[in-house]
Amino acid sequence: MTLSSLRFFRALSHLSLALAMFSIAGGHWALFQSVAYFRMVYTYSSGGTWSSALEKTLSGKYPCALCKKISLEKKKERNNPSAHEMKTKKGDLFLNSFSILTFLNFRKMNYPSFRESQYTHPLLEIPEPPPKA
Length: 133
Hints:
Blueprint: H1 3-24, H2 27-45, H3 50-59, H4 65-79, H5 81-108
C-alpha cells in the first residue's frame, strides 16, 4: 500500500467514527430539526420580517409538519423499551466481560511486597562526569 492510500483509509475511518458518534449521540435529530427550522424561517419570512419569522419559529407555538413528525419519532425512540434494553444489555455484557477478564488477569500476577523490593533510596547525587548524549 502506498502512503496516499493509507492516508485515505485513515481519513475514511475517522469520518466513519465521527458519523457513528454523531448518530449515537442523537445528532441526526438535531440535523433534522435544523432543516425544519430553516424551512420554517423561510416560510414565515415571506409574509413578514426576519425577526418575526425567527420569533414564530423558535416560540414553539407554530410547529410545522416536520417538527411534529420529529417530536413524535423522538418520543417513540425514548419509549421503545426493546431498543433501550438491547443497548443496555450489550453495554453490560461488554463491561462485565471486560471487568471479569481484568480481575482474573490481576489475580494471576504476583506482585512483590514492599519488603521484597530492591529499591533502597532515590538517587541523591548527579553522577560525575555528566552522561554524554
